[in-house]
Amino acid sequence: MIIWRRSSATAAMMLLALAFLFVVATSGTVTSNGSTGDCNPDVNIPTGGPVRGICFHYRHSSSHHYPTGTGTGATGTKTRRRGRYFPMIPYGAPPVGHKRWTHATPAAPWPNEPRLDLSKIPTRICPQPLMPGTNFVTHAGVEDCLTLAVWTPAIGGGPTNSIPNRLYPVMVYFTGGSFASGYATMPLYNASSLVDPPTSSNSKTGGPVVVVNVNYRTGLFGGLAHVGLGSHTNFGFTDQRLALRWVQSNIAAFGGDPNRVTIFGESAGGSYIYMHLVAGMHHRTNKNDDEPKEKLFHRAIAQSGMPGLPLLSLAEAQHLRGVALEQRLNCTRHTPEESLSCMRLERSVTQVIEAIQLGGCPARPGEWSMVGRTL
């Protein structure tokens, strides 16, 4: 595990990150998706619009990783965790049709009325192939998947468009999955233990934080290199950068501090952390921008993943990957631009996923997402 930091506070963040990977809510009850006095599920997102999340409580077994919260350190009892959950918040415009294999742009705002009830939006998974031994189906996912999930402590009182008096540190998580799979709302990434950590005297997990889990494009959809695209690739990575810009603009409305943002990830997500460190903490409008815009993050934790994966050059990836996919989809045309148009507009998500599952394209998905330039 590699930790990049500017203050000793990152050590506490590291412990929170470790806890995040191991704790899954084994049983739980949603208490309400309406105001409960000390928990208000309504938030007005500055760049989006009004949303309604879920006020929850979970009852956990306190054995293994967490004390009981009673101050005794005893195990085997139950402890209640409370907070708010906001799944399926759009941060990027749907990368569909002619926008397939383009860098994502911010999601459009939605109407003030009616309030967007996030509890009623079906889970969206970015397109990904069957992963043996998991619950994935063969053709999992839709391209309109650029959403994120926010977990917060239970915050109530005050008007729904006000920023809470106390702002908590923010942790933004990028999932693993060999650059080919994974999604923000997997049960594994239940963050209730971070937003409402134990309060006993022997707790090592620190105080509550606001957690953001990000959906981003993976596999072929996240990193295709093709001559018709020029130097543009690494779409999954730029999805993540766009999500970090969303955090800077909106997280205060959820009780998060945009000036205390830690990014973390495991496996492929850990490798992406290194890419973010190389690309820089600031958002730039272009590679030659000498005056960077807002700071996107302040600390970083890489939980596995490697900073030096063997990568193809852009030209190699365009030939070995882009041409292979083009041929597999029977989209070879007179010009690269016409071939790309065929792959975008005349081939379905299922056909693209099957192209790598059934052959024609090498089965090293990391090389799809890591080749070429980053923004």
Q: How is the biggest beta sheet arranged?
A: 9 strands, mixed
Count the beta strands: 12
Radius of gyration: 21 Å
Level-1 CATH class name: Alpha Beta
Mean pLDDT: 76
Q: Quickly count the helices.
A: 9
Poorly predicted residue ranges: 21-32, 61-78, 133-137, 358-375
Strand order of the largest sheet: 1-12-11-9-10-8-6-5-2
H/E series: EHEEEEEEEEHEHHEHEHHHH
Describe this structure in words.
β9 (168-174), α2 (192-195) and β10 form a beta-alpha-beta unit. It contains nine helices and twelve strands. It has helices spanning 9-22, 192-195, 219-223, 235-250, 268-279, 314-328, 336-345, 349-357, 365-370, and strands spanning 2-4, 28-32, 42-44, 50-52, 54-61, 78-90, 116-117, 147-152, 168-174, 210-214, 256-266, 299-303. The protein is globular and about 65 Å long. The strands form two sheets. Strands 1-12-11-9-10-8-6-5-2 form a nine-stranded mixed β-sheet, sandwiched between helices. The chain has a single domain (2-58, 75-370), classed as Rossmann fold, CATH 3.40.50. The protein is an alpha/beta fold and 375 residues long. Helices cover 24% and strands 19% of the residues.
Question: Could you give a quick summary of the protein structure above?
Answer:
The chain has a single domain (2-58, 75-370), classed as Rossmann fold. The chain is an alpha/beta fold and 375 residues long. The longest helix has 16 residues, at 235-250.
